[in-house]
Amino acid sequence: MTLVQTDEPAPPMRSDAIVRVRHVHKYFRRGSEQIDVLHDLSLDVPAGEFLALMGPSGSGKTTLLNLVAGLDTPSEGEVWVGDQLVSAMSESQLARWRTRHIGFIFQFYHLLPVLSAYENVELPLLLLPLSAAQRRRQVTTALELVGLSHRMRHRPGQLSGGQQQRVGIARAIVTDPTLIVADEPTGDLDARSAEEILDLLGELRRVLHKTIILVTHDPRAASRADRILHLEKGQLVEAGQSFGH
Amino acid sequence: MKFLMLIVRNVIRNPMRSILSVLVTIVLVFVVIVVWSVLSLLDYLTTEKSQNFRGMVTERWSIPSRLPFSYADPLSRGAARRPGDVVPTDSMTWQFYVSTFDKEKITRESLLFCVAVEPAKILTMMDGLDLLEGNDLDQLSKYVKALEEKRQGVILGRNHAVNLLQKTIFAPEEIIGKRINVTGLATFKGINLEFEVVGLFPPGRYDTLAAINREYYNNAYDAYQRTTGRPHPLAGANLNLVWLKVPDTNSFTRLAEQIENAPDFANPAVKCETAASGYSSFLGGFKDLIWGMRWLLAPACLFTILLVIANAISISVRERRQEMAVMKVLGFRPWQILALVLGESLLLGAGAGMLSAGGTYLVINVLMGGLKFPIAFFDRFLVPEAALWWGPSVGGFAALLGSLLPAWSARNVKAADVFAKIT
After folding, report:
1. Which of A91, A98, A183 is facing B334, going by the closest CB pair?
2. What residues of chain B lie within 8 A of the CB of A104, using their CB?
3. In a designed cystine with A187, which of A107, B31, B50, B319 is the match (CB 3.0 to 4.6 A)?
4. What string of DSSP letters covers A130-156?
5. What mean pLDDT is predicted for residues A188-217?
6. Rg of chain B (C-alpha set)
7. Which residue in the set A62, A98, A110 is minimally distant from B331, CB to CB?
8. Cα(A184)–Cα(A217) distance, rounded to whole angstroms?
9. String of b and e for A7-31 (b: at least 16 CB within 10 Å)?
C-alpha cells in the first residue's frame, strides 16, 4: 500500500496493485459554488488487502469508495481496477463491469423486500449468462459461507439486522467479484452482530483472498483491516496502523 | 422469467394501490369498450365498401320515403332498359309496418316494427346476415324456408320474443310456433294482421326488427279495400326502399345514374345512394352525440387511465428509488430498470384491460343480451369480439404512456446520489 501526498508526483504502479487511483479530483457544483470533495488523490490497493478508510463526515471516503466501485466518475484523474480504466467507462459499461467485478455491502443492507434471501442473493447472477443450476449452486454456496443456508426462503422482514447484513454479504460475493467494497457495514448493527460481520469480512479476506475496501467511522471495525487510511478534506493525510491479519 | 417474476412481485407489493389502480382502469376501459362498440358498428355501416356494393333507392323529396309498389320490380332490375345497362346482382324490397301486439297498452315493449320482404332475400341481402356461417346459417335458412312456406309467418327479433314471453332472454325460442295478433299503428291503422312465429333473427343487429312475407302484407291492403270499400291511404305508397347490390363502385355510379334518370320514376322521383350514405343521412340527427362519444368521452377515459397509472407508478418509483439504486449497483443497466418499471405498468394496464374486456363481453353479450342504447333504428349494441384485444391494448397503451416519465426517472436514478442522501 502506498500513501501519496498530493503535491508529490504520482508513485510508480505497484505490480500487485488491483486498485490504482491516479490524481483524482472530484468536485460538485452547487450554483456558482464549486465544492471539492477529493483533491488530487492517488492510491494503490494491492490484491488481497483488507483496507479501511476512515475520516470525518464529508471527508470524501464514500465518494472515493463510489469512484473505485464505478458508481461515480472522477472530475479529473484515473481509476483503474485490474486492467480496466473504470473512470473512462460509460454508464452501461460500468453496470456490466460492476456485475462481474464489484461486490457492494451497504450500511442499511438494502435487500429487496419482495424477494427472499435466496432471490436477493441470486439477483446479480440474473445478469450473467449462467444456467439455473449454476445459479443455484453459487447462491447456495454464498449463503452457506455466511451461515444462512437455513434461512434462504425468508424475506428480509423476517430476518434480524445481522442476518440481513449476512445476506447482503452473500449477495456481494456471489458473483466472485475482484473487489468487495463495504460502506459502514456495521453502522446499523448492535455490537455482537457487528463483530460477527467483521469476523465474516476477515474470513473472506483470509479464506477467499478477497480484496476488501471498508469505509467506517468505527475504530474497532477499522482495526480488523490490514491497513487504515485517513481522509480529511478530500486528501489522504496519514497511513494507519497495519494489524496484519 | 425471473425478471417477469420481479415485475409481478413489485406489482403486488402494495396490493391496495394495485387493486385500486386496476379497478379504476377496469371501469374506464369498460366505458371505452362500450363507446367503441357503438362507434364500430356505426362506422361499419357508414363506411363505403369496395366490393359487393350496396345501394339504397328511396323517395327523393320526402321523408319517410313512400313509393308505389309498382316501382318494386323495375327498381329491382336497376331500371335497366338498354343493352349494356347495369343490372344489380341482387335486390330486396323493404315495406315498413309498425304495429302493436297489445292495443290496450301501447308501450315501447309492445311495439312490433316489421319489414315486409321476399323471404329468400333475408339470407343474401340483409346486412350481416349475408355473412352467417355454420349453425347460425343453417338455423336462419330453416326459418326463412318456413317464412316462404307460411305466408302468415314472422321471423321476430329477440327483443320481441322476450317482450311477448314476458320473461328473461334465455329461452326466446319458446315463442316459435305461437300465433300473435297485431294492430297497425299510426299510418298503418286498419292493417291488422295475424302471424305465426316461424323463427328468430340471430342475436344482435336485428333484435328489434321483425321480417314478414311481403305477399301476405300486400294482400292485407287488398283485404282492407274489400272490407271497407275504399283503398287504404298507404295502398299506393307502401314501398319504402329498395336495396340493390352491385359488384363495385363503378357499377354503382352507373346504376345510380340509370335509375335517377329513368322516366318511369318521375312521380314520385327517386334517389339512389350508397347504403353507407343512407345510414349517414339517417344518423345525421345524432351526429353531435356520436362526435362527443368519439372525441370527448373515449379520449377523456383514456387520458384518465393514463393519469391513474402514471400516479400509481410515480409513487411506486419514488418509494423505491433506493431499490433502483441498489439494482444499479448490482449491475442492472439503465434500460433494464426502465423495462422493469414499464413492465410493471404494462402488467397493471394490460391485465386490467383484459379483465375489463372479458367481463364486458361476458356481461353485455351473454348476460344482458346486448347493451340497450337506442340510437336511430338501433336498440341494442353487442360488444364485438375484437374488443377482447381492445381491452388489453387500450389498458396497456395508456399505462405505458402514463409510466414513461416515471420509468425514465427510475432509469436515471444515480446510485451515488441516492446513497449520499441516506448516509
Report:
1. A91
2. 329-330
3. A107
4. --HHHHHHHHHHHHHHTT-GGGTT--G
5. 86
6. 29
7. A98
8. 7
9. eeebeeeeeebbbbbbbbebeeeee
The distance of A181 to chain B (nearest Cα, Å) reads 11
Q: How many CB atoms lie within 10 A of CB B103?
A: 14
Are A232 and A56 a contacting pair, CB within 8 Å? Answer: yes
Q: Quick check: B150 and B156 in contact, CB under 8 A?
A: no
Length of chain A: 245
Domains and CATH numbers, chain A: 2-239 (3.40.50.300)
Q: What angle do CA B310, B312, B318 make, to 5 degrees?
A: 95
- Reported for A186-192, long-range contacts at CB under 8 A and 24+ positions apart, including other chains, are A186/A216, A186/A218, A186/A221, A187/A107, A187/A216, A187/A217, A187/A218, A188/A107, A188/A108, A188/A109, A188/A161, A189/A161, A189/A162, A189/A165, A190/A161, A190/A162, A192/A162
The residue among A69, A53, A19, A156 whose CA lies nearest residue B331 is A69
For the segment B50-97, what is each residue's pLDDT rounded down to a tens digit? 556 788 888 888 778 888 888 888 888 887 788 888 888 888 899 899
Read off the pTM.
0.66
Query: Using omega within 30 degrees of 0 as the cis cutoff, is the peptide bond preceding B202 cis?
Result: no
**Closest by CA position to A47, among listed A81, A23, A98:** A81
How far apart CA B39 and CA B214 sit, in angstroms, is: 33
Interface of chain A toward chain B, CB-CB under 8 angstroms: 62-63, 66, 69, 71-72, 91-92, 95-100, 102, 104, 106-108, 110, 112-115, 122-124, 126-127, 171, 183-184
pLDDT for B168 = 53
On the question of pLDDT at A242 being above 60, the answer is no
The answer, yes or no, to whether residue A65 has pLDDT greater than 80, is yes
Give the pLDDT of residue A188. Answer: 78
CB atoms within 10 A of CB B367: 10
Q: What are the percentages of helix, strand and coil residues in chain A, rounded to 5?
A: 35, 30, 35
Which residue's C-alpha cell is 363495385? B248
Does B331 reach chain A within 8 Å, measured CB to CB? yes
The amino acid sitting at B144 is V
Other CB atoms within 10 A of residue B304 CB: 18
- Smallest CA–CA distance from A70 into chain B, residue: B329
CA angle B49, B53, B56 (to 5 degrees): 110
Q: What is the pLDDT of residue A76?
A: 92
B317/B16 Cα distance (integer angstroms): 16
Q: Name the average pLDDT for chain B.
A: 83
CA distance B323 to B9: 13
With b for 16 or more beta-carbon neighbours within 10 A and e for fewer, the A77-93 pattern comes to: bbbbbeebebbebeeee
